Amino acid sequence: MEPVRLFIVTDDAAQACLAVMHCHLSDCPSFVRLLTDGAEIRAIPEGARCIGHWFAWSDRNPSAAQMAWEWRKDIGGIEGVSLAFFERIDEWNAKRRAAEARILAEALGEAADGPVIPYSEFANAQAAARAVESETVKPFPKQQRWH
């Protein structure tokens, strides 16, 4: 496992990942750790690079995570994030997006050879393919019963 190069301390990991890393939590790189638990925040190692990104900061009624973050900053020994580090994050995002674009273009290129059908036909075909014939329900009559 890759060593953690950035700790993001937050009250909402999914939103913080989008805000700081510009990716969804499921796509967050292994060199980033998002912390929302007070005990984990207090255990941030000495010399670690950290950023706090809060969405519901409260001075009147602080959460356990918020108090742990204040405590961890007060004892010192953690580093902030430099502009150069954010530039490296931007480079990582650019490489990731380029790779995703290439994969998507290849997939769409392979799909371009097939026929294009309207969505309604596609949806009806998918439903018909998965339909199971019922023994208890009789199909509708082929002729209308009224004229």
Number of strands: 3
Which of globular, elongated, flat, extended, rod-shaped describes the shape?
elongated
Poorly predicted residue ranges: none
| Total count of helical runs of at least 4 residues | 5
Radius of gyration, whole Å: 26 Å
Strand order of the largest sheet: 2-1-3
Largest sheet: 3 strands, parallel
Class by SSE composition: mainly alpha
Instruction: Determine the mean pLDDT.
Output: 84
Approximate strand percentage: 5-15%
Order of helices and strands: EHEHEHHH
- Please give the oligomerization state of what you see: single chain
Q: Note the gap between the termini.
A: 73 Å
Helix content: 40-55%
Description:
This protein has five helices and three strands; from the N terminus they run E-H-E-H-E-H-H-H. Strands 2-1-3 form a three-stranded parallel beta sheet. The radius of gyration is 26 Å and the shape is elongated. The model has no long low-confidence stretch (mean pLDDT 84).
Summarize, please.
This protein is mainly α and 147 residues long.
Task: Please specify the SSE layout and strand pairing.
Blueprint: E1 6-10, H1 13-21, E2 32-35, H2 38-42, E3 50-53, H3 64-75, H4 83-111, H5 119-130
